[in-house]
């Protein structure tokens, strides 16, 4: 058995090396305490039962259930009875580089960007796989798990390939569930993808809707309609969520005062930062740092982490 490239430091699960992605089989016999992540995570239940607890409440888990979490979202597993999960974790940087094209793919774009934030989900998505879909998802996860410590530079293509197969299979299920209620997801307008990249690339910039629209260039009202149709949120609300995710990571990686963390992601007013952070994660920034961080500076193990 190879050691997984992830570790838990007082509630923050993070990569300990330069791995791009990781998949592994884990068993929870009783419970797994509240924790958060420095990466994207998808957990696929393959056996047993349990209860998933997060800001969205408590949900019973059984074979075929899937939980997708954006970075910074906290959750825990309760009342587990031999709950067996395949966990798939990957760095957010992949979505800006190797998987940047996925943003403009209607199915993957919905899975990774739109769905976790729509309908008040606050960065978390749950889905249900039938047996055929479960097997289709688990196959590339097993292959990714099998790479183990070999998943380095020489196997970059293998890692991205297995990860893409898994995410594509899951995206089809999520889209099918959505299509039973709504119209099929469509590729976002090029201006929407550009707007998302601009906002993500300069979180600390004091963006206004008018300035963002001028960068594209578009009429502000048209940008809001296109952006909300594609992403599920207007541009400034999306920016707020990206800032909250970035702040959550910094609170656990950086020992600067909370007010400086807020300013670094574009919220220089401490009171405003406090309100926005708690609205996103359900905890104050101080409580979040206290609950999930380790004062003994584990940042040294994050030398290969994405900025």
Q: What separation lies between the terminal Cα atoms?
A: 31 Å
> What does the overall shape look like?
globular
Helix count equals 10
Largest sheet: 9 strands, mixed
Structural class: alpha+beta
How many DSSP E strands? 9
Q: Portion of residues in helices?
A: 40-55%
**Whole-angstrom Rg:** 19 Å
**Could you report the average pLDDT, rounded to the nearest whole number?**
83
Fraction of residues in β-strands:
15-25%
Which regions contain 5 or more consecutive residues with pLDDT less than 50? 180-184, 295-307
Succession of helices and strands: EEEEEEEEHEHHHHHHHHH
Topology:
Layout: E1 6-9, E2 12-15, E3 21-28, E4 32-37, E5 40-54, E6 57-61, E7 65-69, E8 75-90, H1 106-114, E9 124-128, H2 131-147, H3 156-179, H4 190-201, H5 209-215, H6 220-231, H7 235-253, H8 258-264, H9 270-281, H10 285-292
Parallel strand pairs: 2-4
Antiparallel strand pairs: 1-2, 3-8, 4-8, 5-6, 5-7, 5-8, 7-9
């Amino acid at each position: 058995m190879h050691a997984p490239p992830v570790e838990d430091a007082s509630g923050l699960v993070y990569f300990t090396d330069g791995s791009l992605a990781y998949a592994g089989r884990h068993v929870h016999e009783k419970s797994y305490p509240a924790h958060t992540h420095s990466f994207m995570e998808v957990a696929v239940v393959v056996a047993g039962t349990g209860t998933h607890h997060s800001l969205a409440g408590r949900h019973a888990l059984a074979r075929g259930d899937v939980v997708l979490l954006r970075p910074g979202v906290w959750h825990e597993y309760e009342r587990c009875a031999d709950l067996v999960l395949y966990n798939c974790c990957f760095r957010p940087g992949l979505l800006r580089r190797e998987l940047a094209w996925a943003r403009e793919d209607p199915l993957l774009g919905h899975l990774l960007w739109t769905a976790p934030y729509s309908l008040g989900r606050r960065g978390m998505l749950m889905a249900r796989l039938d047996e055929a879909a479960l097997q289709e998802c688990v196959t590339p996860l097993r292959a990714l798990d099998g790479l183990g410590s070999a998943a380095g530079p020489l196997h970059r293509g293998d890692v991205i390939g297995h990860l893409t197969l898994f995410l594509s299979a899951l995206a089809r299920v999520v889209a099918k569930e959505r299509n039973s209620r709504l119209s099929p997801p469509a590729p976002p307008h090029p201006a929407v993808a550009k707007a998302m990249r601009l906002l993500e690339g300069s979180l600390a910039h004091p963006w206004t809707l008018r300035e963002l629209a001028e960068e594209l260039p578009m009429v502000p009202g048209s940008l809001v309609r296109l952006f909300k149709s594609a992403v599920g949120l207007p541009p400034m609300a999306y920016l707020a969520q990206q800032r909250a995710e970035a702040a959550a990571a910094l609170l656990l990686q950086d020992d600067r005062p909370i007010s400086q963390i807020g300013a670094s992601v574009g919220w220089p007013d401490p009171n405003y930062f406090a309100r926005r952070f708690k609205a996103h994660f359900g905890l104050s920034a101080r409580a979040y740092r206290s609950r999930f961080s380790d004062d003994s500076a584990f940042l040294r193990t994050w030398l290969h982490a994405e900025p």
